[in-house]
């Protein structure tokens, strides 16, 4: 069976990124899923077991002295070494900041093509095809490359999980050229400011737009998100007006999300916003303008005032979960 490599992103505190589940699920569809990890120390048993539980049949641990101090380069060296050893049919990475950079650099190293922001991957006539959502989510495009494709996958786009496996470990030592890598001098952990799910990869997202009129009113979006256990998103107009931080912007120049549920409140649904949310599985829109373009992509729409409807929604959800 063809080997399919997955770059498993591991946090500084030893947590496997949520993206690993979907990536390993896709890899198991295409062949034999192998997780590649760049690490300074040998991986702890529980981390290997975790990757196995997500479907990795093998864990390729590439150790380097600079794994904690160089930016992205250790992951690229790990993948390049794994490609040379295992001759995989494809490499899958998250469409995260690090994943995108690693994909591009690996492609240069291996002379491969990169397929970005895939929302699905399949095999057809022996070729690996990546599907992407383009032009504001209005078209689905299938892409392929000659040789070994390197594919970045949109976080949250893949629902399934691979069957659990008992992962075998392959160990390798790699060298990172510190002169060519961006180096980390020190870490400054950002204090935990929110217990809400992270927007990228969240299963539920509640987003607000300019329709809220002020930062104070936008608190209603956050309240509904909290009642649902959802992440908070915003349109660019809401971000530009200072209602919500830039990190919450959904769309072409913000974050692309593929949650199970996306609730758009007081958002018109400009093409640049839809580009970042149209692949959500279920879209609910509330807008007082019946002709707002957001209703073109909504599965459920309510024409009405957010200030009337959202408080009722919050009350109903809270009373049901009480
Ligand atoms: C290059 C470029 C990149 C861009 N990137 C992005 C991006 O990444 N993300 C993004 O979102 N936008 C982006 N934009 C901006 C985009 O074109 C829109 O301007 C923006 O999405 C509009 O935000 P909005 O829907 O909140 O505001 P508006 O378009 O002003 O819509 C507000 C909506 O709220 C409704 N409303 C008002 N009051 C109420 C109420 N009381 N109850 C219910 N409904 C109400 C109105 O009917 C209206 O539909 C980009 C634009 C450009 C040119």
From TrEMBL:
InterPro entries with a match to the protein in the record: DHS-like_NAD/FAD-binding_dom (IPR029035), ETF_a/b_N (IPR014730), ETF_a/FixB (IPR001308), ETF_asu_C (IPR014731), ETF_asu_C_CS (IPR018206), Rossmann-like_a/b/a_fold (IPR014729)
Keyword annotations of the record: Electron transport, FAD, Flavoprotein, Transport
Co-factor(s): FAD
Domain named Electron transfer flavoprotein alpha/beta-subunit N-terminal: residues: 4-190
Domain of life: Bacteria
Summary of subunit composition and partner proteins: Heterodimer of an alpha and a beta subunit.
Function: The electron transfer flavoprotein serves as a specific electron acceptor for other dehydrogenases. It transfers the electrons to the main respiratory chain via ETF-ubiquinone oxidoreductase (ETF dehydrogenase).
PANTHER family linked to this entry: ELECTRON TRANSFER FLAVOPROTEIN ALPHA, ELECTRON TRANSFER FLAVOPROTEIN SUBUNIT ALPHA, MITOCHONDRIAL
Family: Belongs to the ETF alpha-subunit/FixB family.
Protein name per UniProt: Electron transfer flavoprotein subunit alpha/FixB family protein
Taxonomic source organism: Rhodoglobus aureus
């Amino acid at each position: 069976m063809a080997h399919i490599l997955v770059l498993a992103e591991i946090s500084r505190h030893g947590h496997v990124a949520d993206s690993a589940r979907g990536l390993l699920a896709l890899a198991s569809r295409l062949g034999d899923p192998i997780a590649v990890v760049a690490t300074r120390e040998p991986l702890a048993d529980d981390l290997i077991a975790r990757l196995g539980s997500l479907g990795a049949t093998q864990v390729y641990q590439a150790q380097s002295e600079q794994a904690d101090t160089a930016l992205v380069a250790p992951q690229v060296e790990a993948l390049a070494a794994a490609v040379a050893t295992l001759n995989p049919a494809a490499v899958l990475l998250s469409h995260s900041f690090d994943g995108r950079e690693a994909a591009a650099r690996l492609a240069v190293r291996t002379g491969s093509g990169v397929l970005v922001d895939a929302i699905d991957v399949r095999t057809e006539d022996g070729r690996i095809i990546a599907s992407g959502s383009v032009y504001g989510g209005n078209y689905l495009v299938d892409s392929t490359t000659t040789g070994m494709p390197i594919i970045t996958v949109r976080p949250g786009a893949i629902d399934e999980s691979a069957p659990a496996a008992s992962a075998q470990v392959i160990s390798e030592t790699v060298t990172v050229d510190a002169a060519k890598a961006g180096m980390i001098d020190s870490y400054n952990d950002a204090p935990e400011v929110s217990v809400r799910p992270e927007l990228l990869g969240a299963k539920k997202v509640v987003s607000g737009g300019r329709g809220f009129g002020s930062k104070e009113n936008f608190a209603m979006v956050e309240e509904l998100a909290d009642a649902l256990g959802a992440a908070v998103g915003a349109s660019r107009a809401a971000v530009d007006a200072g209602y919500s931080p830039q990190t919450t912007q959904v769309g072409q120049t913000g974050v692309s999300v593929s949650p199970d549920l996306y609730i758009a409140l007081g958002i018109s649904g400009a093409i640049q916003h839809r580009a970042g949310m149209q692949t959500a599985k279920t879209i609910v829109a509330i807008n007082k303008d019946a002709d707002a373009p957001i209703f073109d992509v909504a599965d459920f729409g309510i024409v009405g005032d957010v200030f009337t409807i959202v408080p009722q929604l919050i009350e109903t959800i809270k009373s049901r979960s009480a």
